Amino acid sequence: xxxxxxxxxxxxxxxxxxxxxxxxxxxxxxxxxxxxxxxxxxxxxxxxxxxxxxxxxxxxxxxxxxxxxxxxxxxxxxxxxxxxxxxxxxxxxxxxxxxxxxxxxxxxxxxxxxxxxxxxxxxxxxxxxxxxxxxxxxxxxxxxxxxxxxxxxxxxxxxxxxxxxxxxxxxxxxxxxxxxxxxxxxxxxxxxxxxxxxxxxxxxxxxxxxxxxxxxxxxxxxxxxxxxxxxxxxxxxxxxxxxxxxxxxxxxxxxxxxxxxxxxxxxxxxxxxxxxxxxxxxxxxxxxxxxxxxxxxxxxxxxxxxx
Length: 307
Known about the structure:
By secondary structure, this protein is of the alpha/beta class. 37% of the residues lie in helices and 19% in strands. The protein is built from nine helices and ten strands. The protein has helices at 14-25, 68-76, 99-109, 132-135, 138-143, 202-211, 236-253, 259-280, 283-305, and strands at residues 4-10, 33-38, 51-52, 57-62, 85-90, 93-95, 116-123, 169-171, 178-182, 215-226. Helix 1 (14-25) links the parallel strand 1 (4-10) and strand 2.
């Protein structure tokens, strides 16, 4: 029998965490272990006694460093020995009551496929694609900024979203908001500490590396919802810097990707923010573009390391 451990990295979101745990406790199938790694400020930490309930066994660990990557890495060290599959959940997701049951059905169905490494849950309230009409232009596909195929990683280092699927699909990367990984392949694979704090693109980096060795799939019947918490990305200026730096760092790590094409795609993304700032008279887009410029300047030493 395939046993599952779910790791939840959380910070200052007690209401969202409680909602997630309620949805896990309402599952029709047993969850063997839930690991909470909490980097909340001391005043907001809620002690969870280690206990066994009808569905949940919760192991709660306070953690001093507010980093999703480091919290997940710590959580992996606390997985029970008899667990076969390790999952990562964002604290602002909610599971359909049959999500774990459907995922375990998929695990039984795929048990003889040794190439399977990761299985994603299916987000059924995925928002519409941002700038969809723009991304459908042939020129956008040629520059490598986007592609119509779901769940692929382009030579620019940009990934396409998976969205909501109607049947099981194979992909090249998996979001870490609701995903399972075969425990054996994680023995020497960790989240890169570069992606600190909010951790933008840490799931792309983590999953893409594994996807080059193993098969990754999204299971359509294993459904969940995502309700993004307000804290999210932080200020537009800081996010604009991060979206450039983290993308360049990701491409630098994977030699088959093109730094030149990545810079071109990021330049297009920068111009999109400028255009939207003018069109919508929205200062937030101007700040994001300014953050992009900041990131471009800081990224050059990273790019030079490849040469």
